[in-house]
Design goal:
The complex is a heterotrimer of chains A (about 160), B (about 110) and C (about 260).
Chain A lengths: L13 H17 L9 H11 L9 E4 L3 E2 L5 E7 L9 E8 L6 E6 L8 E6 L5 E9 L4 E10 L9
Parallel strand pairs in A: 2-8
Antiparallel strand pairs in A: 1-3, 3-6, 4-5, 4-7, 7-8
Chain B lengths: L4 E3 L3 E2 L4 E7 L22 E8 L2 E8 L8 E7 L4 E9 L4 E10 L1
Parallel strand pairs in B: 2-8
Antiparallel strand pairs in B: 1-3, 3-6, 4-5, 4-7, 7-8
Chain C lengths: L2 H26 L2 E2 L2 E2 L7 H8 L6 H13 L9 H5 L2 H4 L9 E3 L4 E3 L1 H13 L9 H12 L15 H12 L9 H7 L4 E2 L2 E2 L10 E3 L4 E3 L1 H11 L10 H13 L9 E3 L1
Parallel strand pairs in C: 7-9
Antiparallel strand pairs in C: 1-2, 3-4, 5-6, 7-8
The chains are: A alpha+beta (about 160), B mainly beta (about 110), C mainly alpha (about 260).
Chain lengths: ~160, ~110, ~260
Amino acid sequence: MEPCTSDDVVRLNRRAMLQRLGTTGVLVALWPARAWTMSEAVQQAMHQRIGTRTPQPHGMTLRLPPLAETGNSVPLTVAVDSAMTPDDHVLRIHVFVEGNPEPVAATYHLGRRAGKAVISTQMRLARSQTVLALAEMHDGSVRSVTADIVVTLGACVEES
Amino acid sequence: MIKPRVRLPSTASKGEVIEIKTLISHPMETGYRRDAQGHMIPHHIIHTFTCTYNGEQVFRADWHPAVAANPYLAFYTVATESGRLRFEWIDDTGTVYATEADITVV
Amino acid sequence: MPWHLVALSAVLVVTYAALCLLDAGASAQYSVEGRRSGYTYLSPENQRLQDDDFANPGLLWVEQGRELWRQTDGTSHASCATCHGEAEESMRGVRTRYPRVDSQRGKLINLEQQINRCREVHLQAPAYPYESAALLALTTFVSWQSRGLPMAVHSDGPAAPFFAAGKHFFHQRRGQLDLACAHCHDQHAGQRLRGEVISQGQTNGFPIYRHLWQTLGSTHRMFAWCNTAVRAEPYPYGDDVYVNLELFLAWRGRGLPVETPAIRR
């Protein structure tokens, strides 16, 4: 991590500044309050796994700390609200990390013998991002949930 | 080689949902880092973890570099019968790390 | 004053005092007379990870050390256990006293060097290379037996000259950035360096599982890293300069509990 130098400071003239603010203003106006646009890499990885099915944001929780002082090891717990019976169970849970060099973090294969659809693990995050989790249900439906996290010291590419 | 750790109850009632915790020593090297000389440290991760219960697979995880080094994973399974649970971690050199635990189900 | 108000006040005062004592007991453990363990600078998630008796990755090395303790080695075909028996008993308190002066040779040695000395002299086995997985595992396993006990090294008597050398090093400027340890860890502890809060640099948790290294590391690895960070030439692991510094730092953190294996950023 190198300290910022004065060369890094972008010098914007008044016109350029107004242009940028104007564009941002338009985008802000069009964007619903907590909308999030998936990165292309995550979209592709998602379609490879769930095809054309549309994930529904319900019945799942994703626990991440809001701030991680180091991205090297971040605790994550993903849970699906499911009785895990033969008539209602989770087949697979996918975790996507759009801010990392590779968009897929892990896939967990559960099934009827799982008992509870709860996974706890430690993730490595390269930078602040929105983490996405999908759950493929036995009936073909797909659930989703997202969680935002600020990472102050990135991993994956940081040296020791 | 450092042995992997697993923790689960040694006894359970039939049908009880038990939590299994696992921890293994592995660098889970992303392939994006450089060493002190500036050379890329090669990608080296565990890509698959499985749990089999009396021979039947009850859980599997497919891992990518976003899984932290020395990976910790906790999951659940139903205690169906007495027997042996086997845990295997396979990395991209083909090395299989394994450990087993017995359970008595009443 | 009506008697029931007196009674109520007394109950409130006693409850408040009890809560203060309880709270003091919980937090004073990691903070003694203004000397703050690195634990107090951790995020809640990392504090939980350190306290987790399963998920703390450092425990992998404790288990490895437990196996090495019983493993016979060298031409003696003996193990640590042959002389020292159960580590839970024989090694309890050991970590709190190192570095110490080896009276036979009049030299300051740290725990890693003591382990290697035992290997060479009593097991007739070769010394483990510094920072090797085996030495880290054994050092962590032995330190683990003192977890929770307060650091209590000798800085006087035969240790005095080594202590003075370590203290001098701590206050000496070095490197291109021309900084001494004291500048960050005494003068600016608690303040920010870019995105991070500077700790006091206490050593009661070593060997630590450092997230940045994604593995366990010794004090000497930490000192070398810090020296490199101010663009100073680091000393080799095991060097007397670093062992002297260890003694000064152990004294500087006196009373703080052994937290090995601690989690640090």
